[in-house]
Structure formats: C-alpha cells, structure tokens
Amino acid sequence: MPRSVYARFHRMQDEIIRAAMPYPEGRFEGRGIVVCAGGPRLFTCAWVGINMLRRVLGCTLPIQVWYLGPEEMDARMVALLGTLGVECVDAYEVRIGPPARKLGGWECKPYAILHSPFQEVILLDADNVPIVEPTFLFETEAYRETGAVFWPDIGGLAPRSTIWAVCRVPYRREPPFESGQMVIDKARSWKALALTMHLNEHSDFYYQHMNGDKETFHMAWRMLDQPYGMPPHPPRPLRSPLPAGQVVHALRQHDFQGRAVFQHRLGAKWILRGVNCAVPGFQYHEECMGFLRELADRWDGRVAGDGGSPLPSDTPATPGRWFRYVRVSSDERRLELLPDHRIGRGGSRCERRWRVIMEGGSPRLEILGDRFVTCRLARHADGVWRGRWLRFERMPVELTALSPDGDAWIVGGEPPAAPSTGPIGKASCAGEAPIDAVYLRVNGQSGALTVRGPYKGASGHDHHVREFVRHLARRGIRQQLIDVPEWGSRELPPRSRDPWFDTLGAPVESKAVLHFCMPHQVRPARGRLNVNYTMFEANRIPGSWVRHNLRHDLVILPTASSREAWVESGFPAERIRLCPLGVDPARFHPAVEPLPLDDRQGRPVREYRTRVLNVSEISPRKNLLGLLRVWLRATTRDDDAILILKVGRQPPGCTVLLMRDLDALERAIGKTRRESAPVLFSDQVLPDPEMPSLFAAATHYWSMSHGEGWDQPMVEAGATGLRLIAPMHSAYTAYLDASVARMIPARLVPARLDGGGRVGPPFEGMEWWEPDEEAAGEAIREALSGADHGSPTPRARIAADLTWEKATDRLIAILDELHARHGRPP
Questions:
Q1: Cα separation of 247 and 251, whole Å?
Q2: What is the DSSP string of 661-708?
Q3: Rounded to whole angstroms, how far apart are CA atoms 301 and 287?
Q4: Do residues 18 and 32 make contact, with C-beta atoms less than 8 angstroms apart?
Q5: pLDDT at residue 438 tops 50
Q6: Are 582 and 804 a contacting pair, CB within 8 Å?
Q7: What is the pTM for the complete model shown?
Q8: Cβ–Cβ contacts within 10 Å for residue 525, how many?
C-alpha cells in the first residue's frame, strides 16, 4: 500500500487527537455492563450470558444490549430481555445524534461504550459466558491505577505487521488484545476511546491491517501512551475435536490471581434451533443449555418482519436467480444461484455451489461448500425449500425464491425466458459423487469399465484414482471399482471417506480393465484388454517392471519424463500413451477459506507474512531432510515466516524416524530449529474436500524432491495461486518453467539416502536428481524478503490445461483408440 495512503490517515489521526473534546463531566454516571448483540444468533448468545449473570452469579449491575436497527431486534426480543432487567438500545437511533461514519458489528462496540449512560463500563461480547460475578473488577488494583483493563489474546502481532507503521507505534513484544471483555473508566480513557472510535469508523482501511476491532483498542491506547492493566495469565483455549482436527471453540480468561472468570465462545456460538457442541472444560454447560430450552419455549428464533439483506443495486432485471436464504435462529441473506451451478453474491465458504439431485423420485436442492455438502433441501407445498445444515450446528434452513420464476430456475436449469439446457439434476459439482448421471456413449456403445486401483487411502495415488472414477462416471461410464490393498497407503478414517465409491463393487460387462498401480502389481484379466496407468520418479525403471508390463496391452504415463524412463529401460514406445493428471480449479483457487492452523506457541499461522507449504509422504525420494537443511540454513528466528510440513503416516514409525534424523541434522550443521524460522509439522489425515483449505493457508509451495512422476500437491498449489519453488527435473518440467515458478537447478546422481546410505528397491541402482541446496536457499531468502511478491503464478495455465475434465477426455480417447485397434467395443 502506498505510503501516501498512510500519510493521509496519519493526518486524520493527528486531527482526532488534537481536536478530541474533553470528557463531558456530569453526562455519565455509575457502573454498568454493555453487550452488543443484534440478530438471532447473537441475541441467543446474549440471552445465555445475561441469564448467567442474573440468575447464577447474582449480578445486579444495570445492563444495556445494543443492536443495529429493527432488522436485528424486534419488540418480542426487547420484551424478553426486559424480563431480565435489560435495556435495549438501537445504535442507529443514537447515531441520529452523535454520528458515526461506519457502524457495523465490530464498530458498534466502541460506539456503545462511548454512548452508554455509564461512566464505568464492563463490555462483554454476546458470546462471552461469565463464570464469576464481574463487579469486583472495578476494585482491582490495576483498574484503580489505570482506568482500563484488557485481556490477552493467543498469538501475537508480528514485528513486520503493517499496523505498527499505520498507527506509528514502535513494535512491542506484548500480547495482543482479546476484546471479548474489557473494563473501562470513560473519565480517564475518553481520548483513547475517541481515537479507538476513529479507527473503527475507518474500518475499511484499518481492518486490512488487523483482525477486527480488538487491535484498535490496543493501538489507540499505545498511540496515546495511555496506561492499562492486563492479567498476566494467558488465555486457555478450550478445544473440541472435529474431523478437521482440534478446533478452539472457547477462550477461558482469568483475573489477576489466575482465577477463571470468562469463557468466550468465539468458535462455538450458541444457537437456538441447532446443535450446540459440548466443549471439554467449559463450565456451566448444563445451565446454559437450560437457558436455551427456556428461550426456545418463548421465541421462534426469528426477527419479525426481517426481510434479509436488500438485493444488490446491480441486480439483473430478471431476478429468478435470487433467493432468500434463512438459517433459522442464526441469520438470513440473499443468495445468487448462477447458471453454471456456482453461488455468486451472498455466498460464503459454506455456500460455493449448488445442484439438484433426485431422491425417491423427488428433487432435492443441495448447497455445497469448499469441503462438503452444506445442506439438502426439499420443496414444500408453499414453495419454500426446507432442510437442515448437515454439519456443524445443523440448524434448519429455508430457501425462498424472490420471484415467481425462481422454482423454474432451480428445477429447469434456466429462467423461463431463456432456452432450457436440461435438468440440473444431471450435473454435479466438484468434489462430489455424481447422482443420476447422464450415460454418454463411447463409440456408439454404452460405456463400461473395470477399474482396479487403491481408492480408500490418503496417498496422492488414491486421490487421482478417486478423481478419475468420479469424472468417468460423469461421462456416463459404468464402472466396477476394485481396491488394491497391496498398494499399502494408510486408509482415510471412515468419516473422511466418500461412501459412494464403495457402491461401485458390482461387476459390469466391460471388455477392459484399467489398472492404477505399480507395474509389478498389475494382475492382468484374461480375455480382456489390460491397461495400467502408472508412473516412476527416476531416470529408468527396473527390468522386472519391463517384463511384467509386456504382459498387458498398454501403459499410460502422465509425463514425458516417465516415458523417457520406460523407453530408456527397453519398453516399446508404441505401447505407451501420455495422459496428464488434473486438478479442479473450482475447488483449488485463491479465494478458498484457509485452514485454521496455529504454531506451537498458539500463534495463528495466517499472521506470518511468508507461509511455505510442503505436502509429502516420508520417504528418501521426497528429500525432506534436504528441504529442512535448506530451511535451517536460510532462515533465522527473526524471520516472519513459517514452514508447514504436512507429512503422511506411512510406513509406521516414519514420523519418529524423521524427528530422529532431524536431530542428527541439527547437530551436523550446528544450528537448531529454535535458531531458524519455525517449522510446523502435521501428520493429520485430511480428506479430499479439506485439502484446498490447507493450500489456501500458505503463500508458497516448495519441493526439494529427488524425482516426481507428477506431484499432485504442486499442481494443486499452483491452481490455488501460490508462488512455487520447484526443482528443474522430471514431472515439474511438464507444467512449470521459469516464467511462472522459481526453478531450482538439479543434477542426476546415483540414488542414495541422505548422507550416502544405500537406497532400497525400486530405486536401487537407478539415478535421480539432486536439487542445488544453495540455489534453494537463495529462493527461500527471496521469498522471505518479499522480492517475489506479485510474481506470476501458473494458475491460469493449470486452470486452462490441467483439469480433471481434460484428463478424463484424454483417458477416454486412449481407451477408444485401444478398443478400435483391437476391434473390441468398451
């Protein structure tokens, strides 16, 4: 961002500080609690927290709940809170007097503190559950001395974070603020509050440099050298296990003596009409659930008269694609369903695509996110599509067309005024098994194919078997899918597997078997054509593989480098075909929501400026020790960077051996991990739908591999828009070059273990490539410096040329050619 922009905001900061009105004596008095809680979801949270204060903890302080207009709170909701002695304040009505440039959910917090009638304020987020009566906080020594108490957040602001320069605050190694609770004396903090309000009124600028409102308080207090107190005890994350791993659902905050006082449910907000997870270590769970049951008996979870967000100003004249999307007792908004089955405006990471399937002879509308089917809806007699979210809170969902042609748009595939393209039930979105697929024809015949390959595991090979099977089915190819357990990859947990693949076990009348396995694992089927899709990562293949491959009809390889290895080893070139693998650019793209990751100190990975990812199984070929050696040598502990190393769990004990080898590596180079930028190791098994979020968590993808048949993670990283660092050898040269990636020179060397030990089969006696570690170190230092920022990525090339659709078309063409040559229809 140009420094001239900073200068403009610096001048505005100076003017606010210079012109700040003195504290208005006599305008405010007493002590009270302020909560910002508009909309069904936060109203529910506030109901629970205020009941805790009043009925469990015995708090008698006056309480105000602030909200933003009648679309967030109706008269019934105001009356319900009134039974607890709560005054509700519409911030928009107050705004008519003291104006605010921008007033949203986060911005409302400092505004409510400033304009509440209390001189001394405890502000609580709506999703904060107190477990100690909080009035005593006004009597703490830190509050009496400073007039403000804030609580620490997990993680920290990096030295290179732009917010320091934006606010002209010298870097301080101190905890960031967690603004779910704070205690402020307005008389002693008036100027700091006014400056905080200014930062929030310009949230469209400042929030680009920080995470919401919390650091606006931090920066304002530091800009004015305003003292504040902070308990010395870090928050304790309360985590709940989910399929994606341990997720922080609440932060437990403490007083100055270390006693737990608040439980901030930042990741598990209460919901009235859905599932509320029990968070291990969370106190008063049963009492909170009781308050929810009471609320459910008295309120339907809706704001009366709320029509949701207005349609965008550039809405087309034919609004058939627009729908009112209600997550009952949570929120509602407009959704735009686009003709290509994407969800346009109004969507989030849980609403990316849509499709219609047939279930029991009736249409079902599915809304899909980045990783899973979000909800499945059935059309009711009143024209509303109803169902539930299938994950997380599982709240009821309603989708209502905003014009009479809306249902025709869903079921027919086009608005009535446009030509029909056929039922959308015949389409499928990325990452999901097709349902009611249209059967295509191959050479005039109904297609059928027996596929034999590993598909239940977490390896890249299992992944591309699943993708080919999905896309063959979308072409109408009927398939029998046979597992290859001897492949040896670790199976995905049952909850992470798509059960659709297990329904493909029935035999089909096919004339060909397509194998996906190592050459020696092919079991040719008598009387049928046998084709093996395989690859290798060295400059030649074992002689036994050549002999075994000669027993079947065709070998398919993904790249020219693999073909050279086969031909160099004596396999006939005329029995080889090339078919590159693919990627789904609709799933792997720059706008994917990043997977939430924390380093070992609890700092969110997203806060690091440079985030380098590698996804590998632990094997000598992947050269992880070489990669780690370069990282240790090229980085220091002061670098604002992290290496994310996502490793497999096969063979058993490999992770322990890697850690042992890493300890030896540190001794050999005389430098430890503590002296370099951090490394985050993860052997967590992620299902296919969650992999895009892992790539989205990084800025760079880096490999030091000795050889690749394809390297699917590198391709997926490129599709996600990451900057790539790759060795200049084998498969990488098929889809990367120096115009779109940082290419590391490499040379052919005898295949050996790191340190010179003997490597076992199938690489024994072969040659592979050794990347230049000095050049790799230069590439890493360039990435850390930001010098490669804005450099081209291969996303456009990959999205155009390396899709699963094109890979499947090429595979079908190869099979058609083989059948035509042998006179056998598929």
A1: 11
A2: HHHHHHHHHT--GGGSS-EEEE-----GGGHHHHHHT-SEEE---S--
A3: 20
A4: no
A5: no
A6: yes
A7: 0.53
A8: 15
Does the pLDDT of residue 370 top 60, yes or no? Answer: yes
How far, CA to CA in Å, does 518 sit from each of 481, 486, 533?
A: 17, 10, 9
Angle between helices 773-785 and 624-634 (to 10 degrees): 50
Q: Give SS3 for 300.
A: coil
H/E run at residue 451: strand 448-452
Does residue 292 contact residue 270 with C-beta atoms inside 8 Å?
yes
**Is the pLDDT higher at 814 or at 788?**
814
How many other C-beta atoms lie within 10 A of the C-beta of residue 262? 24
| Dihedral pair phi/psi, residue 245, rounded to 5° | 120, -175
At residue 238, does pLDDT exceed 50? yes
Alpha carbons 795 and 806: distance in angstroms, whole number: 16
CA–CA–CA angle 758, 759, 762 (5° rounding): 145
Give CA–CA dist 370/374, Å, rounded.
Answer: 9
Continuous H helices in 363-509? 406-412, 460-474
Which of 162, 164, 220 lies closest to 195, judged by CA?
220
Mean pLDDT of the 434-460 span: 61
Q: What are phi and psi of 771, to 5 degrees?
A: -65, 145
Q: What does the alpha-carbon distance between residue 689 and residue 682 come to, in Å, rounded to a whole number?
A: 18
Please, what's the largest Cα pairwise distance for the chain? 97
Query: Which is nearest to 199 in space by CA: 121, 208, 64?
Result: 208
Cα 266 from Cα 699, distance rounded (Å): 26
Give all strands of the β-sheet with 177-185 in edge-to-edge order.
86-90, 63-67, 31-36, 120-125, 177-185, 148-152
Length of the chain: 826
Q: Tell me how far apart the alpha carbons of residues 500 and 435 are, in angstroms, rounded to a whole number.
A: 10
Q: How far apart are CA 432 and CA 608, in angstroms?
A: 33
- Determine the Cα–Cα distance for residues 83 and 174; give it in Å rounded to an integer: 42
d(CA 35, CA 269): 15
Q: Tokens at residue 585, please?
A: 């650019």
Cα(811)–Cα(791) distance, rounded to whole angstroms? 34
CA 808 – CA 814 distance, rounded (Å): 10
Whether 405 contacts 383, CB under 8 Å:
no
Q: Nearest-CA neighbor of 692 among 712, 665, 669?
A: 712
Position 752 pLDDT exceeds 80: yes
User: What are the helix (H) ranges across 623-675?
Assistant: 624-634, 654-669
Q: What is the residue type of 768?
A: W
Closest by Cα among 57, 339, 102 to 198: 102
Of 718, 726, 728, 721, the closest CA to residue 748 belongs to 728
pLDDT, one tens digit per residue, over 96-122 is 666 677 777 788 999 999 999 999 999
- Across all residues in the chain, what is the average pLDDT? 86
Question: CA nearest 478: which of 454, 498, 514, 504?
Answer: 504
Distance, CA of 181 to chain centre: 27
Give the integer Cα–Cα distance in Å for 561 and 453: 23
Which single residue is written with the structure tokens 């849509």?
A: 354
